[in-house]
Design a protein that fits this description.
The complex is a heterodimer of chains A (209) and B (468). Chain A is built from 9 helices and 7 strands; from the N terminus they run βααβαβαβαβββαααα. By secondary structure, chain A is of the alpha/beta class. Chain A has a single domain, classed as Alpha-Beta Barrel (Aconitase, domain 4). In chain A, strand 3, helix 4 and strand 4 form a beta-alpha-beta unit. With 468 residues, chain B is an alpha/beta fold. Chain B folds into 3 domains: 156 residues, Aconitase, domain 3, CATH 3.30.499; 96 residues, Aconitase, Domain 2; 178 residues, Aconitase, domain 3. Chain B is built from 16 helices and 19 strands. In chain B, the strands form 5 sheets. A 5-stranded parallel β-sheet of chain B has the order 5-4-3-6-7, with helices on one face. In chain B, strand 13 and strand 14 form a beta hairpin. Chain B is globular and about 55 Å long. Classes of the chains: A alpha/beta (209), B alpha/beta (468). At the A-B interface, helix 2, helix 3, helix 4, helix 6 and helix 7 of A face strand 1, helix 2, helix 3, helix 5 and strand 8 of B.
């Protein structure tokens, strides 16, 4: 568990680190962090419990227990990763374990947004390319890999793969505006105008604002 | 790109600004919070020195962690007690209306907002819970958010979001007797899969949907997220308005007329354009039940469990995992499978009509030997209404436990849990590995009537065999 590295802050242009693959489609947020660990009022302790139940399965060296992965920060996943509950505890647990970027074939929507709000890019790469990426990692497990948000590429010493990241997410990461709060609260005038035009706040009252 | 759908109209009306990069700053008309996903948001707000921007438009309740046996304070689980206390403090400090235990208004967040009339057509509704899609049953745009977004809504009553595409799911015909809204949505997820809705809002429409009651519509929209769709909605109609009339938070008098006038303009127009459309025949849907570890792994009650090689290639590995985890065999029947625990409740199926349909099956029958069966009403109001109708007597007489309201064993954050590899027949919404509190526990999702039928026979059974 790579808890020493700092949490994301400011503009994110590249993420460099070692990577590992967690196989399986439709891995849901209940598996990423089982509900019993949601009994908390802070996210601080979640890193230890990421995939707690999957890691208990007998005769299996779960990738999150594999000593070779201890200092790795890039996770490679398959399809529809993060489906299910909207709990931000899932990306928080991954981040606190040490994950700083996720590469996958596809992601569930709320999970994707929750990761982005923490400054953790989820980048997409189609099936044939991801197989080639996984093969490359297998052949050299300790190689560094770089997710270049600007170039939309994954780069190793001798290879590269194109990634899809979506213009919005890309700009938010590059500008550092993935943390939306300050932008949102600076628009008070526009918020007030929107409120003045909402029938349920003006033409009739449903409840007091 | 969709145009003139209800989704487009509400989206445009709530758009505050376009953010750099193409996201939209969207105003949130109703923000619902609970004890699990809000404490970190309040802490972050405090850290940034920010205040709640619009405290009256956030409503709080406690549901996930509440015990369903004794709810006297302090809770015996000190972590649960701490979570409730933190919510109490945050609400009191920020002048947020809190529907606490014993207020008569407490319950699962997606049950209490509709039943009090807080949920209304034309609103945007957000909550740190993925089943917020439930509220779309009223013709609102409702979606789950993460804790960072809860913080943003508290701070600004807005959030940053990308507009979804809209897919129309049209249902001809009508549901047959013994087939429920739960079967309809499980059927949809089985046919379309758990990824089909990613990037979409689902509009449920057509004669079969119009025939559904408001509570049934909530069940359908509730599980849109299980099909990958962050939002599910149904155009408001006379049933919607009749349901909302005289609710505590509904507009009254002249304002009611003004509200209806506006609500009638919201439905997707005849000239609406959708990004995708698909059709179903509701009269062909049978009671449907999940057998695996995703809500898409479902079959009609009288079908045989699918052979992995008959499935899409990309679903085969998950099917193999599911068979191993569930200890079931392809090509066999699910009917007759013995069950250990029966759970009736949740934001999917914990409303009065759900309890009525289960009570109809439980009446004059008894829970099978060795089966633990319990009923958890979705809210204090559901419990009161059910008790006024004597439903609790029917359940108790039949050997079910009658519990206090909460989320309970849907996600097992309270003491209600499966043990070891028990199999549950459950009216909830997720059958993920470990979902119901045991890392080897197994969940079969089905309608509340089917759960009751399983309880009284001790095994999975087609509920139509028990209907008079």
């Amino acid at each position: 568990m790579n808890q020493n590295s700092k949490f994301p802050k400011g503009p994110i242009k590249t993420i460099t680190g070692m990577s590992f693959h967690l196989s399986g489609n439709d891995i849901d947020t209940d598996r990423i962090i089982p509900a019993r660990f949601l009994k908390c009022i802070s996210f601080d302790a979640l890193g230890d419990h990421v995939f707690a139940d999957d890691r208990k399965e007998p005769n299996k060296n779960h990738p999150f227990d594999d000593i070779k992965n201890t200092n790795k920060s890039i996770l490679i996943v398959d399809k529809n990763f993060g489906c299910g509950s909207s709990r931000e505890h899932a990306p928080q647990a991954l981040m606190r374990w040490g994950i700083r970027g996720i590469i996958g074939q596809s992601f569930a929507e709320i999970f994707y947004g929750n990761c982005l709000a923490l400054g953790i890019p989820c980048v997409q790469i189609p099936e044939p390319e991801i197989l080639s990426l996984i093969n490359s990692i297998k052949s050299n497990q300790m190689q560094d890999l770089s997710i270049n948000i600007q170039l939309q590429k994954i780069l190793t010493n001798d290879q590269s793969w194109n990634i899809e990241i979506g213009n919005e997410s890309r700009e938010m990461l590059l500008s550092g505006e993935w943390d939306a709060t300050s932008k949102l609260i600076s628009q008070t005038n526009k918020i007030n105008i929107t409120m003045e035009n909402l029938p349920y706040l003006n033409k009739f009252q449903n409840f007091e604002c | 790109m969709s145009t003139k759908t209800l989704y487009d109209k509400i989206w445009d009306l709530h758009t505050v600004s376009e953010l750099p990069g193409g996201s939209t700053q969207l105003f949130v008309g109703l923000h619902l919070i609970h004890e699990v996903t809000s404490p970190q948001a309040f802490a972050a707000l405090e850290e940034k020195g920010l205040k709640v921007f619009c405290p009256k438009r956030t409503i709080a309740t406690v549901d996930h962690i509440v015990p369903t046996t004794s709810q006297s304070r302090p809770f015996s689980d000190s972590l649960a007690e701490q979570m409730l206390q933190t919510l109490e403090e945050n609400c009191s400090k920020n002048s947020i209306n809190f529907f606490n235990i014993g207020s008569g208004q407490q319950g699962i967040v997606h049950v209490i907002a509709p039943e009090t009339g807080l949920t209304q057509p034309g609103m945007t509704i957000a909550c740190g819970d993925s089943h917020t899609s439930t509220h779309g049953a009223f013709g609102s745009i409702a979606f789950g958010i993460g804790t960072s977004q809860v913080r943003d809504v508290l701070a600004s009553q807005t959030l940053s979001m990308k507009k979804l595409k809209v897919k129309k799911l049209w249902f001809d015909g009508r549901l047959k007797k013994g087939v429920f809204a739960k079967d309809l949505i499980l059927h949809v997820i089985q046919k379309l899969g758990v990824k089909d809705g990613v990037g979409f809002a689902y509009e449920f429409a057509g004669p079969a949907i119009e025939r559904l009651t408001m509570e049934e519509r909530m069940t359908v929209c509730n599980m849109a997220i299980e099909g990958g769709a962050r939002c599910g909605y149904i155009n408001p109609d006379q049933k919607t308005f009749d349901y909302l009339k005289e609710k505590p938070y509904s507009p009254k008098g002249d304002e009611w007329d003004k509200a209806i006038q506006w609500w009638k303009t919201l439905a997707s127009g005849k000239d609406a354009k959708y990004d995708e459309e698909t059709k179903f025949d509701a009269s062909k849907i049978s009671p449907t039940i999940t057998w695996g570890i995703t809500p898409g792994q479902a079959i009609e009650i009288d079908a045989l469990l699918p052979k992995p090689e008959s499935l899409n290639k990309s679903d085969q590995q998950t099917a193999l995992d599911a068979y191993k985890y569930m200890n079931l065999k392809p090509g066999t029947s699910i009917e007759g499978l013995d069950i250990d625990v029966c759970f009736i409740g949740s934001c999917t199926n914990g409303r009065l009509s759900d309890l009525q349909s289960a009570a109809e099956i439980a009446k004059d029958r008894h829970v099978a030997q060795g089966v633990k069966a319990f009923v958890v009403p979705g809210s204090e109001k559901v419990a009161k209404d059910a008790e006024e109708q004597g439903l609790h007597h029917i359940f108790l007489k039949a050997g079910f436990e009658w519990r206090k309201p909460g989320c309970s064993m849907c996600l097992a954050m309270n003491p209600d849990k499966l043990e070891n590899n028990q199999i549950s027949a459950s009216s909830s919404n997720r059958n993920f590995k470990g979902r119901q509190g045991s890392s080897t526990g197994r969940t079969l999702l089905m309608s509340p009537a089917m759960v009751a039928a399983a309880a009284v026979t001790g095994s999975v059974i087609d509920v139509r065999k028990l209907l008079h």
